[in-house]
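Batch job 17 of 40 flagged for manual review because the log was empty.
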Amino acid sequence: MRLVFASNNEHKLAEVRAMMPKDVRILSLKEIGFLSEIEEYGTTLNENSRIKADAVWAWLQTHPLQQPVDGVFADDTGLEIDALNGEPGVYTARWAERETGIHLSEMETYAANRQKALRELNNHSNRACQFKTVITLIINGEVKQVEGIVRGIITTQEYGTGGFGYDPIFIPDGYDKTFGELSAETKNKISHRANAITELVKLLAE
């Protein structure tokens, strides 16, 4: 099976490819020649996930590939912090940038987002939160959505250099290390994306 994952984020691509069955080949947007920016104008993770999947599916209908693909899937992930009423939520990826208006590189953005989370929770004893991933799958024009959640807490400082994004400040429930400290193998078994991919694989097997 050949599926397009509506992303060019190398970190996410590596995670998803490691989680998927070996008989499923995952293609990035770059690999299929999709070069357009997709405007994520939704107000929920479900909406943005659907917007991305729809855009790539529509593009494929007018740009047939030499080797056809079986379908398209897109994800949208949000960090939802209890004490901040679910923020940053749908704005997780560019949380700090929305505050400052300054466009940063990928790694600078990750660092700025982590520092903003630590600042926002500086005077909060409740540091509980969750990561949520919503995946939209389109095959033969049929649209289905699944989700995955992992609960945890935000630390008071950064620990570890593994993973990406908020990983060095997020400790999943049941563990005493951040995603930045845990091995990629462990993270890929318990993360929000892993839980969503598990549900996606169930859909593909139907």
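Reviewer: the log was empty due to a logging misconfiguration, but the result itself is present. The chain has one domain: 2-205. Unflagging and moving on to job 18.
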